[in-house]
Write a structure and sequence with these properties.
There is one protein chain. The chain is an alpha+beta fold. It has one domain. About 50% of the residues lie in helices and about 15% in strands. It is built from 2 helices and 2 strands; from the N terminus they run βαβα. The chain has helices at about 10-30, 40-45, and strands at about 5, 40. The protein has a two-stranded antiparallel ribbon with strand order 1-2.
């Protein structure tokens, strides 16, 4: 089955948590880490 993804609709609080995790991972790894949030459109179609 082909996967179709859309950007996840995140609240401001969710985005802040993602940003905080990016910052922590970047510091731990010593390189920039960027997280991207998607949701599976196929899940929407099955419901």
């Amino acid at each position: 089955m082909d996967k179709e993804y859309q950007f996840a609709n995140l609240s401001d609080g969710d985005l802040q948590q993602v940003h905080n995790l990016e910052k922590r991972l970047s510091e731990e790894k010593g390189e920039e880490v960027i997280l991207i949030a998607y949701h599976d459109q196929n899940e929407d179609k099955r419901q």
